[in-house]
Amino acid sequence: MEPVGPAPAGPGRRSGTGRLAALLVSPTLLVLGLVVAYPILSAVRLAFFQRDDGIDPETGLRKQGDVFVGFDNFTDMFTGDTADRFLNALANTTSFTVAAVSVEVVLGVLMALLMHRAFRGRALVRAAILVPWAVPTAIAGLLWRWVFQADGVANDLLPGPPVLWTTDGAQAWFAVVIADTWKTAPFIGLLVLAGLQVISAEIYEAARLDGAGPVRTFFAITLPLVKPTLLVAVLFRVLDTLRMFDLPYTLIGPGKDATDTVTVLAFEEAVKFGKYGPASAYAVVLFLYVAVVAFVFVRLLGADVFGTRKGSR
After folding, report:
1. What is the mean pLDDT of the chain?
2. What are phi and psi of 64, to 5 degrees?
């Protein structure tokens, strides 16, 4: 008597498995649609409208509602009355991202190398380094606002007259970069540390036998092998910094030319002035900006976000 094996996977069985898979993931897709897709589509739609609360010339009555204005909200950002402020906010957003992420990469790699070394008290050092990253960003902004007060710790440590860090100017820009670096450099350090821990110790032993010093070992072995993890860490930080809102808002405040970002500008337009159409247009432009940056990292720089490429771990 021939043994009875599992039934071959036919079309009916495959379709049943597909329906089961769709049923299992449908709650997640529903939640993503409600919290991601719907707000994005609503913001895109609202970007083509503008609030009109004027007086109807035909009836003499006050009218309320949204009026379709086409691409006017987008063209006004570059050629209208608010063009200077928007371009300034876009430049601040980009400069914050470039400066903060560059410093965070250097400090994060140094932190990872320190945490990767075997020494007494390493667990305590790892916990201490990760504390700033665990602090909520709004709380970190208030903390650094206290540090950068006229009579705060920063001015006590610096010689000369007090620096008005939280007023408008270049010092406010540096204050935001310093605070953001303090908070999020440990994030890059944590991801790079994960990449360092998968590098075999035999590779370093072979390098030492060949006479390679610490500097050459770092640039010839450590950095190339940790590059995929580092690119993903930089991508996450770039996308996060481009959307930065709570740190400059709580540390410096809105309405400052040196620290206004696109998100702060959109928040003011929506909450302070009630201009939801222009605010949505700002959000849409920032969304496209972030999407382009993500595309450059994934396609051109080779950031393997999902770990699906050949040879990825």
Report:
1. 83
2. -130, 145
